[in-house]
Description:
about 325 residues; alpha/beta; Rossmann fold; Alpha-Beta Plaits; 4-stranded antiparallel β-sheet; 11 helices; disordered C terminus; binds adenosine-5'-triphosphate
Amino acid sequence: MQQPGSTLMDDQPKQPPAAAVSVTGLSKRYGAREAVCAVSFEVAAGRIFALVGPNGAGKTTTLECILGLRRPDAGSIRIHGLDLRTQATQAKLLVGAQLQAASLQDRITPRQTLDLFGSFYPESFAGEELLRRFDLESQADAPFATLSGGQRQRLFLALALINRPTLLVLDEPTAGLDPQARRKLRILIREMRAEGRTVLLSTHDLEEAAQLSDQVAIMDGGRIVAIAPPAELIARATSLCRVCVRTAPPLARALVDSLPHMLGAVYSDRGWMLDTPAPNLLLADLVRRADQAGAELLDVQLRRPSLEDVFIELTGHSCSGGEPPGEPS
Ligand code: ATP
């Protein structure tokens, strides 16, 4: 249990110098299906690292191997330098996990669950403290079956933290939640990093990965195709910026065609969509010329390349499984 007098924020885990997770040449097959193929990456201690990819990319299998729930066919995994093949018991004490398919018995309450799971470990947080922190106090004695999706996810996150782990492994922690519950969960995940813990998570939400993570590994078909901080990945995108502008009256085609740095223009839905590598220069001229033409600006939007654009460029398909975006109609 938590030491008397200590608080959650006092609980700064001491980080050993080694990377929190080090995966080398990890491969795993299910029969003929190669779920994970020669995957290697390192998760720096105290950072949020996201494995992103569509359904079936191999994210869960990778996390399950790291958690010691599946035996790899090849490769090695170290957690803070401890080799999972020979030092699994010590390594597991450093890890807290939240799995995608987690569930609990219908009638158990959050308070009972936290007390029960806390009793499994030599050191753990007090259930009361986690109920407060994860905003579950008013549902503390409610049966699990009556909790909302967001409350359940917060309980699973609290359970992942119960043994004061240095490393948290979270499989799709925000899947299926409404935007408000997602925001709340992201705040909690950032708090874990602020305490010095390492978070390794999986998601197929690229926007979320870009907002939340220090490092993103793009995974597709069992392989890692790129690893970098999200801003660095986005900077690699070759897609153009897109300026969408509506004016009254609409701008003439001749005016639009004469704008500097304009590499493509499509008129749609009473506005122009203009592709450009230099949005500042294009917008400055656009505003001036619209004014000269007596056209009033009604709406201007700028869309920069996103992690989704990078994903499509690297894999040839969308992360959410849809078709790559084509020409605007
Ligand atoms: P999701 O986001 O849908 O969970 P994922 O990226 O986590 O996808 P995995 O669940 O690791 O991917 O699955 C990788 C591949 O392995 C998929 O083709 C999947 O169908 C297959 N697979 C996963 N688990 C098993 C299993 N127990 N038996 C057979 N095939 C499996």
